[in-house]
Specification:
With about 200 residues, this protein is an alpha+beta fold. Helix content is about 30%, strand content about 35%. It is built from five helices and ten strands; from the N terminus they run E-H-H-H-E-E-E-E-E-E-E-H-H-E-E.
C-alpha cells in the first residue's frame, strides 16, 4: 500500500517586510487545498503562529538573504521545515549563564538546558548530538508576573513554536552548512475537528 505524501515549497527573502505575505500564502494554500490535504481546521491557527515565529526568528538571526520553507503533508501529520545557509543556531541558556552554538562541543552533547521560562512553562533544549537539538516544554510552578516581564527575550518565539506543535527540532548539516528547523503537527486527536 502506497503511503500518502504531498509537498509544497516556498523560497523567500529574509526581510521582515515580506514575511507576512509568505505566512499568508502558506495558510491560504492549506485552507484552499484542505479537502485534499486533510489538515484539521482546529490546528490552522497553531500552524500560522508557528510559521510566523519561525520566519521572524529567521529574519532576525539567520544572516542569510534567502530561506526555503517546505510544507510536507502526510495522512497523519504536517511537517514544516525552514532551511537556510546562514548562521547556525545560537542560544543563551540557563538564565544567561551559558551560550550554545552549533555545531556543539562534545562536552555539551546529550544534555538539557533551559532556554526560556514563562509563568507556567520551561522551554528546554536537549542537545541530541553535536549537530542537532530537540526543544521540549516542561511545566513549572507559577512565577510572579514581574519576573515574567523581566525575562521576556528573543527565545519567546521558540516557546510559541514548541507550544503550538508536537515536535520541534533543529539540525545543522556540517558539510553543506545548512540549518534546518523542523516543526511537526500531528493530526491524531484532531481528525474529527475539520468541521
Amino acid at each position: 500500500m502506497k503511503k500518502y505524501s504531498h509537498k509544497k515549497s516556498y523560497i523567500f527573502h529574509n526581510k521582515a517586510e515580506g514575511l507576512a505575505s509568505v505566512v499568508r500564502k502558506c495558510v491560504e494554500y492549506i485552507k484552499e487545498q484542505n479537502e485534499f490535504l486533510g489538515v484539521p481546521v482546529a490546528i490552522h491557527s497553531k500552524i500560522q503562529w508557528a510559521i510566523t515565529e519561525l520566519l521572524i526568528n529567521g529574519a532576525k538571526h539567520s544572516g542569510s538573504a534567502k530561506s526555503r520553507l517546505n510544507l510536507k503533508f502526510s495522512e497523519s501529520d504536517l511537517t514544516i521545515e525552514k532551511e537556510d545557509f546562514g548562521n547556525s543556531l545560537e542560544l543563551i541558556v540557563d538564565a544567561g549563564e551559558s551560550k550554545l552554538t552549533w555545531p556543539l562541543l562534545e562536552n555539551l552533547v546529550n544534555q538539557h538546558f533551559e532556554v526560556y521560562r514563562n509563568g507556567m512553562d520551561s522551554l528546554r533544549v536537549f542537545t541530541a548530538s553535536e549537530n542537532s537539538a530537540i526543544f521540549i516544554l516542561e511545566e513549572v510552578e507559577d512565577e510572579e508576573m514581574p519576573l515574567l516581564l523581566v525575562n521576556t527575550s528573543d527565545h519567546f518565539g521558540l516557546m510559541i513554536i514548541a507550544k503550538s506543535s508536537e515536535h520541534f527540532t533543529y539540525m545543522y548539516e556540517k558539510k553543506s552548512g545548512k540549518n534546518i528547523f523542523s516543526i511537526r503537527f500531528d493530526y491524531k486527536g484532531n481528525l474529527n475537528k475539520n468541521l
